[in-house]
Amino acid sequence: MSNISLRSQKLESLWGAGPTARYPQLRATYAALFQKIRDNALDAELNRVLPFVPLQALKDAGFTALRVPVEFGGSGATLTELLALITELGSADSNVAQALRAHFGFVEHLLSEPESAYRTKWLIRLGAGETAGAAAAEGGGSKRDQFSTILEEKDGRWVINGSKFFTTGSLYADWLTVTATTHDGQTAKCLAARRDPGLDIVDDWDGVGQRLTASGTAHFRNVLADSDDIRFGNVAFPYSQAFFQLYHLATVAGIARAAATDISEAVKRRKRGFSHGNADLPAQDPQILEIVGRVCSSAYVAGAVVSSASCALQAVYDSTEDERENAVVRAELEVWQAQDQVLPLVLNAASLLFDALSGAATLRSAGLDRHWRNVRTIAGHNPRVYRTRVVGDYAVNGTPPPEQWRVGLSS
């Protein structure tokens, strides 16, 4: 086992206990796999190795079926357990964690659906290890009130035509969850097989961070959609906005842990010190140790906030129909407040770590810059400035958070 592996295990005592009594056992199921992913993450980043292998390993290990009920082949994990494990996976490799975001969102959609043949069919498939990727967002020229991707009937079959961007995880998935517009202007959600000959996924994502998530373009040319899988209108599960944003924060909390692990190991190894420092070795310099401690503390706080907010999300899932509206409002407000604090906290920590190592930290081979780049990229997807304003409006005026939002041109 590598020194970094040993160091990451030792740091686990800093992150606090898991969310449930059974969590240690659940985590132990994936600990070795997470470690293997962690050991290969830097090489994958430096040499642009797309994560087909680790994602397949996670499928084979049952990780992608965490939330699928036991009767359908899954583990029946709670939302609090899922998000804690996503933080662990994000610590190993945030690209891999983010590539599964749409998949776990699809699982939540199914769990919120009433009993039906549709629900049963897809839970069985996901319980067996099949996965789904994202195909909702579109490029800069799309309109806010409708999607340019069209779902229409041709020769008695439903087909999808158009292009999507931000198709995170779709290159690695078996299915794509597609949002489109019908010719009569309805929003429709459906699924498309990754191997359909009319579907072309282009790995053209060129963001500064999360470079291996394949969050680029997908082109649909008469791609088939099963009529039994089509849902018309806004059929997002009630806590979808809070879920998808808290998933991002769980990944960010994982990045903070990775940064803390990397900086503590680098300081431990470092032999060169400055004449105007406080000790011959950086590992004995109290100012350097303070920096390491601040990075670790930031990782702890980020994880604790995510854990707390995940309880609010679990409360929505467990709520009755009469309780749900209020539970959703509470969960969204908690997550929006978490966004406002966790993102700048971890961005600062990912920058602060460079102060402990001086110029050596900037070497590309060290890969320490990826932590800041990855957090900055995730933070930009759904601007927190709007979330903070929503919290303020609620505090001052009692205005509840807005319903499902859309992005695009206003006309």
How would you describe what is shown here?
The protein has helices at 3-11, 23-47, 52-60, 79-92, 94-99, 101-112, 117-127, 240-269, 286-318, 321-352, 369-380, 384-397; strands spanning 132-135, 150-154, 157-164, 175-181, 187-193, 199-202, 217-225, 231-232. It has 411 residues and is an alpha+beta fold. The protein has three domains: 3-131, Butyryl-Coa Dehydrogenase, subunit A, domain 1, CATH 1.10.540.10; 134-232, Butyryl-CoA Dehydrogenase, subunit A, domain 2; 240-397, Up-down Bundle (Butyryl-CoA Dehydrogenase, subunit A, domain 3), CATH 1.20.140.10. It has a four-stranded mixed β-sheet with strand order 1-4-5-8, covered by helices on one side. β2 (150-154) and β3 form a beta hairpin. α10 (321-352) runs antiparallel to α11 (369-380). The radius of gyration is 22 Å and the shape is globular. The N and C termini lie far apart (57 Å). The mean pLDDT is 94.
